[in-house]
Design brief:
533 residues; alpha+beta; Glutamine Phosphoribosylpyrophosphate, subunit 1, domain 1; 7-stranded antiparallel β-sheet; 18 helices; globular
Length: 533
């Protein structure tokens, strides 16, 4: 056997656009993309393909998503866009005073405290009910085969090893089930090792056979309820039974003749739209010029100043999305930007783990979809007998009294995962999205500008180096930027760290060519693939 490092690539990668006419799937993992294509070839439509990808990703990328997390989607059918918000709320027993008594100034990322009701299974069932040609069982069939065993990728083997070490050192009793579900032998994995998730496969099978009823009112719900009661969690069967996914109207701004669409709060898609609205009023020049980057950085900070203050459960928001997206307001915000970097009133974004994927078929259907556990393996709370790690989305709540996003029972938290879509006039152009916690609206803004302002093809728009605002005046920037430009930005007051792995996200794009075919692109920053026929 040859001896080589599967993670070492000394040369810059180059990917070409993938074209197809009858269907196209794009995701961050080749096996998941293949699952989507398999379902398309079996007569499914774009939504069926996305559901196949969604289920497969829970198996081949279990750190970043699973049945214990949430999902969102934008669907284009016959020229109309539909939005799905399948994010969950906090348990009815949630007690903020108890969180404070335990000494927390902010909700932690691990353990029961940040766990919210998982919305993904209900979202899968709703998408299937409303748009699918195939049954949920048919859509999940490739994922169930993968759960019997597949070869680990270079990305996922080290994630499993790192989490194994963390769990072994953890003192939280409720996370102990993680080892049994995801690494029962305490093995150290290498890329290419065969990895199986039989309990997760059984849970996915029950979800598919019952259209997710098992997860919210059946065997899985009972197991979640019993484990929470045994180990001190607040989540109960009643919370699961009360949950419903929500159909919502997507928001849009017209940016230089192209409509950019995002979902409304409690998601942070509004942040990207606010930033683009501001940038439309500014003299943006070349894609990587000092002036252009400075303006983008300031607009993104301004957008987060609003998002982190206003975005919350819609029932608790004090300002409407319409007000934040008015052109007059954008002009006023743009006027605040000067020649040097400024600090605006905002919080401190953090990194998250998510998967984004999209699909299109030859009949004109398209879907932009994203799902997540938030941090790696979410809260790490893994319910015995299910293979389900529960999300830690409650960590996105605020603990500041008076804040719109203040943690409370049966409340939806500020949510980071956001799918996006582009249209022009009455014509759907296609879905795009980039995962990465608070990086997501930043990447949406940068990629949309690459496509619209700088006329880059979808692959080039994803390949282009990115920056990521972290807090205050601080930004991470990829090494691909001109060092002289980075130095000029620092002279303007930006505090910059040039990092190869600075949380820049991973994304996919599918666009209609307008000539009866589709063009797809995927990230060089991940194991992603685009496959069509």
């Amino acid at each position: 056997m040859l001896n080589y490092d599967p993670a070492y690539y000394p040369y810059p990668s180059k990917r070409n656009l993938v074209y197809a006419s009858r269907g196209l799937c794009a995701s961050s993992h080749p096996l998941a993309t293949q699952a989507g294509l398999t379902v398309l070839r079996r007569g499914g439509n774009a939504v069926d393909a996305a559901l196949a990808i969604a289920a497969a990703l829970t198996v081949v990328d279990p750190a970043n998503n699973g049945p214990g997390g949430d999902c969102f989607a934008i669907i284009s059918q016959k020229g109309k866009l539909y939005g799905l918000n399948s994010s969950g709320f906090s348990p009815a027993l949630f007690d903020l005073d108890e969180v404070k008594r335990q000494g927390h100034a902010a909700l932690p990322f691990a353990g029961w405290l940040p766990v919210t009701v998982p919305g993904a299974p209900k979202g899968w069932a709703e998408l299937n009910r409303r748009f699918s040609k195939l049954s949920l069982e048919e859509c999940f069939a490739p994922a169930l085969e993968l759960a019997k065993g597949y070869a680990l990728s270079p990305d996922n083997a080290p994630i499993l090893n790192g989490m194994t070490a963390q769990i072994e050192k953890s003192g939280l009793p409720e996370v102990g089930g993680w080892l049994h579900a995801f690494n029962p032998g305490g093995k150290r994995f290498r890329a290419g090792d065969i990895y199986a998730l039989p309990e997760l496969g059984q849970t996915l099978s029950r979800i598919a056979k019952t259209n997710a009823e098992d997860f919210y009112a059946g065997q899985t719900a009972e197991l979640i309820d019993a484990f929470a009661k045994k180990t001190g969690g607040w989540l109960r069967a009643g919370d699961l039974a009360a949950y419903e996914a929500r159909w919502v109207d997507p928001l849009r701004v017209n940016y230089k003749g192209v409509d950019v669409w995002e979902l409304p709060p409690n998601g942070q898609g509004l942040t990207a739209l606010v930033a683009l609205n501001i940038l439309e009023n500014l003299p943006v020049s070349g894609p990587q010029s000092e002036e252009s980057l400075h303006l983008q950085m300031e607009a993104i900070k301004l957008a987060f100043a609003d998002a982190l203050n206003y975005v919350a459960d819609p029932a608790f928001m004090r300002l409407s999305p319409k007000a934040l997206l008015s052109k007059e307001y954008a002009q006023n915000r743009a006027a605040l930007i000067g020649e040097t970097a400024k600090e605006y009133a905002f919080g401190s974004p953090s990194k998250g783990d998510t998967v984004y994927f999209c699909a299109a078929d030859g009949e004109g259907n398209m879907i932009s979809m994203i799902q997540s556990l938030y941090q790696g393996f979410g809260s790490r709370v893994t319910v015995p007998g299910t293979g389900v790690a529960l999300q830690d989305r409650g960590a996105c709540f605020s603990m500041r009294e008076g804040h719109a996003n203040l943690a409370a029972p049966r409340k939806y938290p500020y949510h980071t995962i956001i799918p996006a879509f582009l249209t022009k006039g009455e014509e759907p152009l296609g879905p795009f999205g980039i995962m990465g916690g608070y990086m997501q609206p930043q990447a949406h803004t940068q990629v949309a500008m690459n496509l619209i302002d700088f006329c880059q093809n979808p692959q080039a728009a994803l390949d282009a180096p990115r920056f990521c605002w972290t807090e205050g005046l601080r930004f991470n920037m990829e090494p691909g930027f001109n060092p002289a430009t980075v130095a000029a930005l620092e002279r303007r007051g930006h505090q910059i760290s040039v990092l190869a792995n600075g949380g820049y996200g991973r994304g996919q794009i599918i666009l209609s060519t307008g000539r009866g075919s589709l063009a797809g692109a995927t990230e060089p920053r991940a194991d992603g693939s685009v496959i069509g026929f």
